[in-house]
Amino acid sequence: MDKKELLRNVQLGKLSVEEAAEKLTGFNELGYAKIDTQRKERNGFPEIIYGEGKNLEQIIGIVTVLKEEQKPILATRISSEKGRALQDTFPDGSYFELARCFVLQPVQPDSETYIAIVTAGTSDVPVAEEAAVTAETFGNQVKRIYDVGVAGIHRLFARLEEIQQASVVIVIAGMEGALVSVVGGLVDVPVIAVPTSIGYGSNFQGMTALLGMLNSCSSGVSVVNIDNGFGAAYSASMINQLRRKK
């Protein structure tokens, strides 16, 4: 709720002066969490719930407050057990098991621009789905282009035109992370690389892919943390939003 709407609700008698004063602090105190109610005004996107480390009661409490404050609501890293419970508690929401995300009140897409999400292998898809669900929740069109890694590079070329027409590309790969350098050399839009922890021993749970991506010789490539599909989608959404404003 922005400040003008807040004052309007006080004027209409929907909020007391005390309730309005509490909301003007910019956060909602729950004891176990301080919910940032003004993040969208500052950053363009609302607060997101990181589910790991929070118990079900805490997540339900946070969602209950956010439901009155913002759209959309996204909770990431939600286990299947917590996801089913959230779905029961908030039946108008959706739990995406592969992405481990719970979504309530998503933003509807308002543009034909899209984010291309490209994976090297099928094993990278859970990270890709976290990115895809995040991007879609924020109102972006998404094209999923999965399992097109360098071991069979003709698969990539078969989808190259779709990738090149995206406003931003997220490339997700484990092993040695080579796919991002190939894609980065074929597109004229920003590329966000996501290293994954997929690979044999010397992949070192994603460190090899991370270092390979950081050392990419392709220009226009930026890199997020290992398995951070959410972070890649957040940045891609900001870029896509700028493209839509042109």
Automatic annotation (TrEMBL):
GO biological process: 'de novo' IMP biosynthetic process
Protein name per Swiss-Prot or TrEMBL: PurE domain-containing protein
Sequence ranges assigned to domain PurE in this UniProt record: 113-245
The organism's taxonomic lineage, starting at the top: Bacteria, Bacillati, Bacillota, Bacilli, Lactobacillales
TM annotation in the entry: none
Molecular function via GO: hydrolase activity
Span of the signal peptide: none
Record InterPro entries: P2CMN_synthase_LarB, PurE_dom
Highest taxon of source: Bacteria
